[in-house]
Write a structure and sequence with these properties.
Blueprint (H helix, E strand, L loop, with lengths): L6 E4 L5 H12 L3 E6 L5 H8 L5 E5 L5 H15 L4 E4 L14 H29 L2 E6 L3 H4 L5 H21 L4 E8 L5 H4 L3 H9 L9 H13 L7 E4 L8
Parallel strand pairs: 1-2, 1-4, 2-3, 4-5, 5-6, 6-7
């Protein structure tokens, strides 16, 4: 897919990996839809516009099916289409499963997996008609290998992987690709708060012996968005943490 001029909707795109995705796609000449649950700083919109592209912002909770649909409709009214959807928004609430409440488990699943479903179903309605589009879902190495204290998060991301492969099969004949990216430890404000001891232990389990950069995740997303013959895949951006033979 030629990216210049395409409209890219990135959920959870006001910071971290989501913001890195927004900047990277803007550099490719894409129009960007920034998204978050709360009001979005106008300065972020201007930063994206500085790349010479259009940028709009829509706020809302992706875990709410009706709100997700309303956001897609709002973007379509302003830009005409959503050519690329990146389901990036997600939360963690780490706790050992014996201490985790049902509410704590369900909330993570509702946002990470339920939100991915909500946004995907609404955006597919027009993608199916135009017979083109790309959907990229943000999974995690936790969803592939599990992680202590992350039963809720790992379950939600494993669900994203299965969801990705299933939807890819359903929409392939309409020229729509659906893929996932599974990041490992990436340097963001979330990992900055980890103690040096935790960082050292994590690095010891990474063959490349370092945390990844947001830009490396963004480049993986651009690669998937550009290639119309790649679908139903999970691309690990993890420094070799998860090696599947």
């Amino acid at each position: 897919m030629e990216l210049k001029g395409k409209n890219v909707f990135i959920t959870g795109s006001t910071r971290g990996i989501g913001w890195g995705l927004a900047e990277a796609f803007a550099k490719e000449g894409c129009n960007i839809v920034l998204n978050g649950r709360g009001e979005i700083d106008p300065a972020l919109i201007e930063q994206i516009k500085a790349f010479g592209v259009c940028c709009i912002a829509v706020s809302g909770d992706i875990a709410d099916f009706e709100i997700a649909g309303a956001m897609i409709k709002e973007v379509e009214a302003q830009l005409g289409t959503v050519d690329i959807l990146i389901n990036n928004a997600g939360i963690t609430n780490d706790k050992l499963v014996l201490r985790m409440t049902g509410e704590e488990f369900q909330k993570v699943v509702d946002i990470n997996l339920g939100g991915t479903f909500n946004m995907t179903q609404h955006v597919l309605k027009k993608m199916m008609k135009q017979r083109s589009g790309a959907i990229i879902n943000m999974a995690s190495v936790s969803g592939l290998m599990g992680n202590l204290g992350q039963a809720n998060y790992a379950a939600s991301k494993a669900g994203v992987v299965g969801f990705t492969k299933s939807v890819a099969r359903e929409v392939a004949t309409r020229g729509i690709t659906v893929n996932a990216i599974a990041p490992g430890f990436i340097e963001t404000d979330m990992t900055d708060c980890l103690s040096d001891k935790v960082k050292e232990a994590a690095t010891a389990n990474i063959p490349l012996q370092r945390f990844g950069q947001v830009a490396e995740v963004a480049q993986a997303a651009i690669f998937l968005a550009k290639h119309p013959y790649i679908t139903g895949q999970v691309l690990n951006v993890d420094g070799g943490m998860v090696m599947q033979g």
